From TrEMBL:
The gene is zapE. Keywords: ATP-binding, Cell cycle, Cell division, Nucleotide-binding. NCBIfam families: ZapE. It comes from Amycolatopsis samaneae. Transmembrane segments: none annotated. This is Cell division protein ZapE. GO terms for biological process: cell division. Gene3D superfamilies: P-loop containing nucleotide triphosphate hydrolases. InterPro entries: ATPase_AFG1-like, P-loop_NTPase. It holds the Pfam family AFG1_ATPase.
Length: 341
């Protein structure tokens, strides 16, 4: 049977469904503090587990008193730090810790990447997003990004509204590997950008090398087109698309719908990949790569090698963190495809 095409999919989501998607991705369904394995050479990792567990317990304690609180005028923002910020480089387990914090916290609660949150506000409108999230106990934000001033201000305003309503916030960063030697560089940037909330965040550093590349080979080379086609036909639930056609299709969908587009897909095949032609296409590919990684969907490509997906100019520009993360994640997914074969 011929493989399906992602370009044939046009998923639609209601407001309730958009909020309902704010949970840890399948890759992190089973993560907990107990199965996080700290690097013995990086003591900050074990310390981060302790800090995150304590933060989750702090949220749980007031939740047990929610009935009493509701009798005296509803929720009130607790005193003291209501935010936890995990600061560190790629692949040190920050997302594992964030998802574990989410799993250990009573609901209602929401979990999403910084990009997913900006997409949610764009899809629902600011006031409606605040209304729907303000009754939550916890908002977990993975990969808080500081490279877009407009988005940073938007989410900063959202966090201010939510923390004033009593919502706790946990977030992670993505410090560039070559910035790790600069101490609390990313943390200071984050706190400065959310000035009015800075005193409400506790910063926890998580150091270490990218676990996705510990002793592993570089990205598998692209395959020939006939090999790609054979793989797509051999694996049930596969999709196969021409790279340019997929890029055009992504441009027609709101990024909040990319995840739903991948429902039921077991392996993605992209024919004829090449460097993204411009920044808009490149950023859509980053969002698409994130949704693939969330769902642990192996990727097989023909054309140019995955590390060439973004040009040198892009890699050295303002969205450097996004592009390096996307390459790291796509490389891991390409390895998954090779190992499965």
């Amino acid at each position: 049977m011929p493989a399906a095409h992602l370009t044939d999919r046009d998923p639609q989501l209601s407001a309730d469904e958009l909020i309902g998607t704010l949970v840890p991705p399948p890759r992190f369904d089973a993560v907990r503090f107990t199965n996080y394995i700290p690097n013995p050479d990086e003591p900050s990792q074990a310390a981060a587990v302790t800090s995150c567990a304590a933060f989750a317990a702090k949220i749980e304690a007031p939740a047990k008193k929610s009935k009493l609180r509701s009798l005296f005028g509803g929720a009130q923002a607790p005193s003291g730090p209501m935010g936890l910020y995990l600061d560190g480089g790629f692949g040190v387990g920050k997302t594992h810790l964030l998802a574990s914090t989410w799993h250990a916290t009573p609901g209602p609660k929401a979990y999403g990447t910084f990009v997913e949150l900006t997409h949610l506000v764009g899809a629902l409108g600011f006031a409606e997003a605040v209304r729907r999230l303000s009754g939550h106990r916890l908002l977990a934000i993975d990969e808080f990004e500081l490279d877009d001033p407009g988005d940073t201000m938007l989410i900063g305003r959202l966090l201010r509204e939510l923390t004033e309503a009593g919502v706790y916030v946990a977030a992670t960063s993505n410090t560039l590997p070559d910035k790790l030697g600069e101490g609390r560089f990313a943390a200071e940037d984050f706190l400065r950008e959310i000035q009015s909330l800075a005193s409400r965040f506790t910063v926890v550093r998580v150091d270490g090398p990218d676990y996705r590349h510990r002793g592993l080979p570089e990205a598998p080379p692209p395959v020939a087109d006939d090999v790609l086609t054979a793989s797509a036909e051999r694996h049930e639930g596969s999709t196969v698309d021409d790279f340019d056609a997929l890029c055009a299709h992504l441009g027609k969908l709101h990024p909040s719908r990319y995840g739903r587009m991948l429902d039921g897909v077991t392996r993605v095949h992209l024919r004829g990949i090449h460097p993204a032609p411009d920044q808009s296409v490149a950023l859509r590919l980053v969002a698409f790569a994130d949704r693939l990684y969330d769902r642990a969907i192996p990727v097989v490509v023909s054309g140019r090698p995955l590390p060439e997906l973004f040009t040198e100019e892009m890699i050295n520009g303002g969205y450097r963190k996004k592009y390096l993360r996307a390459v790291s994640r796509l490389t891991a997914l390409a390895r998954d495809a090779v190992q499965a074969a």
